[in-house]
Amino acid sequence: MKIQIKNGHVIDPKNNIDSQLDVFIAAGKIVALGQAPEGFIASQTIDASNLIVCPGLVDLSARLREPGDEYKATLVSELQAAVAGGVTSLACPPDTDPVLDEPGLVEMLKHRAKQLNLAHVYPLGALTRQLQGKVLSEMGELREAGCVGFSQANTAITDTQVLWRAMEYAATFDFTLFLHAEEPFLAKDGVAHDGEVASRLGLKGIPSAAEALALASILRIAKETGARIHISRLSTAEGVDMIREAKKYGVNITCDVSANHLHLTEHDIGFFDANCHLKPPLRTHRDKDALSAGLKDGTIDAICSDHTPADDDAKLAPFAEAEVGATGLELLLPLTLKWASQEKLSLAKAMALISQSSARILGVAAGDLSLDAKADICIFDANEYWKVVPSALKSQGKNTPFNGLEIMGKVKATLVNGQVVYQSE
Amino acid sequence: MNNPQLDVDGYLRHLLSIEGLPKRILNQILDTAESFVGVAEREVKKVPLLRGKTVCNLFFENSTRTRTTFEIAAKRLSADVISLNVNTSSQSKGETILDTVDNLIAMHADMFVVRHSQSGAAHFIAKHVPEHIHIINAGDGRHSHPTQGLLDMFTIRKYKPDLHNLRVAIVGDVLHSRVARSEIHALTTLGVPELRVIAPKTLLPAQVEKLGVHVFHDMKSGLKDVDVIMMLRLQNERMNGAMLPSAQEYFKTYGLTQDKLGLAKPDAIVLHPGPMNRGVEIDSSVADGSQSVILPQVTYGIAVRMAVMAMLAGGQGSGSQAGSQV
Fold this sequence. Notes:
Radius of gyration of chain A: 21 Å
CATH superfamily of chain A: Metal-dependent hydrolases
Number of helices of chain A: 14
Order of helices and strands of chain B: HEHEHEHEHEHEEHEHHEHHH
Number of helices of chain B: 12
Largest sheet of chain B: 5 strands, parallel
Strand content of chain A: 15-25%
Oligomer: heterodimer
């Protein structure tokens, strides 16, 4: 199968490409940009006039809900959502049921995803068995099975001795740890930022200090052990400052922010909107501004969707009892574009935060349009507005705080391994 | 953000929280309640405003006092009343709050009085019921207890009619108190110029000053020259732990005694939402003393709840109309 994508505006941050070029694909790979290779006869031509052609998006955190929670979402539904959102590679956290702490489960997940031939799935293995924070999982075996890193999902390792050993062991084999910085005692039973809104609504708060305290332990131990750490979903201004400082002193650390936290604050909870029940909680305007600034100055490396599809019933409860999370795969691109346009950032810089940079963090070959790379490509209209209508989302989870929002940036087609896996109607 | 409590014409549709209600509506409720105070003193303690209507008390959290006053209020308005205690822990996984409510709506309940341990439960139910159903929040978690806030205002107004010249102190566990939140919103909306909260830092929510209150940590300066003292109940489970070392120490520092009461204005009144912990937040001599208006609060509570029900289901939210029919 040979494909020519013509007349599109190609943006490839890694290779500094930002111009109108044709893309030539053969045998699932990119074989040329600009001039057709000799003797190239396309069997399929995609007209990308007035459209952006960029590397398929790479998402650092997307829950697929398999195995175990198929009533919330399935591999099929969520990988269809991924490609509809232009996401061609994604990392999934290990908090499934059962937990991804056994090689067999990882192999099965990888195998099932591969058969579907939609987005590439890169599982994060459980860092400790059952995510209990006590016994290390078989990281070596899990790595062989296909895990690209290790994570505690939303839980923390409370025992600093275990955290230290986990980092030492991971550092030995150069594995990346994906950690969520939240001190569990301070955050206990908390459902919203401990501030004005939580006080007004009578919701139990999670103070900003919970993030700072967890970060302090993680950064200190990372410095000691030399482990490679990725902080998932930073949420506070203080957290941004701490990471900035740590990077200055050479700690081996990267971090991301969720697209939700770039656009929403505690005030969006309004009268108890359960779709704004997120983890970490939505914080203040000041925090949102600091996250944005951190992203611009490179302190924060990437934007993730933090895709967490939930079934309708799970959100149909009073705020604190409603399940945490929001669906996000189909909103990652438009929310990133919206943020970039507010911050007057170039398209190329914005795209790097959801492709090249996330691929580098995961250590996977993705997120660029280099010659001979897998032809994972997203083609979108940067100027087309569309309205977020939950029922129209491909994801089985219709839970979004952006219901009704008009946003710009519509995916027209997505290619994975040189095959068109999604085309908009 | 549209206010879920008011209909498109600005009339009261649900009573979920004091926050978001304009002064006009608060005064309307209080004025309407005024006309119901006399009902209890008649030989036939009933008015026919809610005849043929079914009021359902739906209590997901235990309560005797509040449930009883709502029952009496509804009965005095001639409504049919059903009271259900739904123990949340025994609520089988399958039956959600909405299932319970839907079932009762199918039995043609017109109005729900709801208490639940989760903040936002009343808003949640109100969001999902058909348009002709009215919800009254009888307490949701730490969030709101609007009829308590209203009856406190009614009581204050009775004894201190000029709200624009009052200094009010709320004392105790503000952090966990839906009553305190309702009182704060009611007092600030009605134009009370100086509102204080007095509590140790462990019992105050984050950024409480943003609710429009002055924060004090000691009774001596906090109670100085106040006209109204509103005591809060301290739950047993908060007495010994990381919030407070002991009930004794709490009483010593924040319990309202005759001595401390002497710091307030000589004609200051003392309120308490009940049930009281005598010897913990309040001394018996104060609770039963001449400045206490704790029992009148209970009496007025019925009139206020009647007013709310009458306005919701009786007639288009028009207070004067409901009043004139009495």
